[in-house]
Structure formats: structure tokens, C-alpha cells
């Protein structure tokens, strides 16, 4: 770490100490709110952040808010665990819809360009003189059909995902998981989430035998 970076880090640390020293009651209240992990606590911390003028205390309150969100959205029963998983899956599918929407729009734009290209090409191929008789092959109708098929495929998946999300929302019973703010659950992970259980090439778990 360079001296400049060290000075900046040291300065921020000293500023944090001053915040703690000069505002012990406020810090204590924010900590209590964070650890309570209730909806009322979330609203109280958000209100504090909106009204607080000091950058240091706002920053501390933001940390308290994130901690409070963690406690609030952590599932505490089998039903909440199920609803938590559904809420997280909904968010993941909403993110996929955003991606698919972008691709569908790109495909639609490509088709508009192809329509123009075909219109010009059709005009040219009507000039049946000399070498122009082969110009019609400069436009690929097969490619155009491929783009159409891809766009329909994208729209079909989007339609399915939207229907899936709508149905999943109806199955969530815990109120706090019915409309989770975007980005809240991305830091929550199950122990084995993302673990690849398929054998892809060499099994990285070994054969179970003695070495």
C-alpha cells in the first residue's frame, strides 16, 4: 500500500473514531435498530439517513441499514425458508428477463435492417441485365428466418418467465418476501448454492479410494 493510500485509510479511521466518540447515543440507537431486524427498524434507519446532514453518521447508518436488512430478511421458519427461496428465484428470473428483453430488441432491430436490405436488393434484382441476375443471392433469406426464429424464441421464454413469476408470487405466504427490493437478497447464499454436482470431465472429488 502506498503512503498516500495509507494516509487516506488512516484519516477515514480517525474520522470513524470521532463519530463514535462524539455521538455515542446515536451510534447505540443505530446499533439497537440494526440488531432488532424489524420492519419498523428499517424504516427508522432509512428516515435517519434521509434527514441526517453529517456524512459520517449517514455512512454509519447505511451500514446499520444493511445489517438490519440481513436480520429482517433472514428466514426463521420452514415456511419463511421456502418463501425466501421463491423470492430469490423471482429476482433471478427478473434479471434474466431484463437480459432477454435486450436480446429480443437487438433481434428486432436486426430484422428491421434486414427488411431494408431486402427491399433494396429486390429493386436491384428486378434489373435483369448482365451480372445482376445473380445479385439476388447477396441477400440471405435463410439468415432472416433464423433471426425471426431467435426473436420468437426469446419472446416465448420471456412470456414463460413472466407467467412463472406471477404464479410464484401467489405462492409466497410471508409478507416481507412478497415484494423484496431489488438487490437485497443477492448477498444471501445457501451453503451449497452454486456447487456443481455434475461430473464435467474429471471428477474433482476423486474416486474415493486410498492414495
Care to describe what's here?
- 68% of the residues lie in helices and 0% in strands.
- α2 (24-36) runs parallel beside α4.
- The chain contains 6 helices and no strands.
- It has helices at residues 3-22, 24-36, 39-51, 55-73, 78-125, 141-171.
- It has 211 residues and is an all-alpha fold.
In short:
With 211 residues, the chain is mostly helical.
Q: What's the SSE blueprint?
A:
Layout: H1 3-22, H2 24-36, H3 39-51, H4 55-73, H5 78-125, H6 141-171
Helix pairs in contact: 2-3, 2-4, 3-4, 5-6
Apparent shape: elongated
In DSSP terms, counting alpha (H) and pi (I) runs of 4 or more, how many helices? Answer: 6
Structural domain tally = 2
| Strand composition percent | under 5%
**Proportion of residues in helical segments:** 55-70%
- Give the total of beta strands: 0
- The H/E string reads HHHHHH
List segments where confidence is low: pLDDT < 50 over at least 5 consecutive residues. Answer: 1-10
Give the helix/strand class: mainly alpha
* Radius of gyration over C-alpha positions, nearest whole angstrom: 29 Å
Biggest β-sheet: count, sense, barrel?
none
Keywords:
elongated; 6 helices; mainly alpha; disordered N terminus; 211 residues
Amino acid at each position: 500500500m502506498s503512503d498516500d493510500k495509507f494516509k487516506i485509510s488512516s484519516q477515514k479511521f480517525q474520522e470513524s473514531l470521532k463519530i463514535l466518540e462524539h455521538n455515542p447515543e446515536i451510534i447505540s440507537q443505530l446499533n439497537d435498530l440494526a440488531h432488532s431486524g424489524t420492519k419498523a427498524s428499517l424504516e427508522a434507519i432509512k428516515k435517519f439517513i434521509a434527514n441526517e446532514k453529517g456524512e459520517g453518521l449517514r455512512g454509519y447508518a447505511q451500514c446499520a441499514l444493511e445489517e438490519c436488512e440481513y436480520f429482517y430478511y433472514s428466514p426463521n421458519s420452514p415456511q419463511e425458508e421456502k418463501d425466501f427461496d421463491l423470492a430469490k428465484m423471482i429476482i433471478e428470473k427478473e434479471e434474466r428477463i431484463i437480459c432477454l428483453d435486450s436480446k429480443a430488441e437487438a433481434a428486432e432491430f436486426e430484422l428491421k435492417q434486414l427488411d431494408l436490405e431486402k427491399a433494396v436488393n429486390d429493386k436491384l434484382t428486378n434489373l435483369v441485365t448482365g451480372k445482376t441476375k445473380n445479385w439476388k443471392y447477396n441477400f440471405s433469406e435463410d439468415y432472416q428466418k433464423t433471426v425471426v426464429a431467435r426473436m420468437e424464441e426469446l419472446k416465448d421464454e420471456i412470456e414463460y418467465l413472466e407467467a412463472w413469476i406471477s404464479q410464484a408470487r401467489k405462492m409466497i405466504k410471508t409478507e416481507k418476501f412478497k415484494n423484496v427490493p431489488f438487490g437485497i437478497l443477492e448477498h444471501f447464499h445457501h451453503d451449497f448454492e452454486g456447487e456443481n454436482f455434475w461430473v464435467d470431465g474429471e471428477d474433482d472429488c476423486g474416486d474415493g479410494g486410498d492414495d
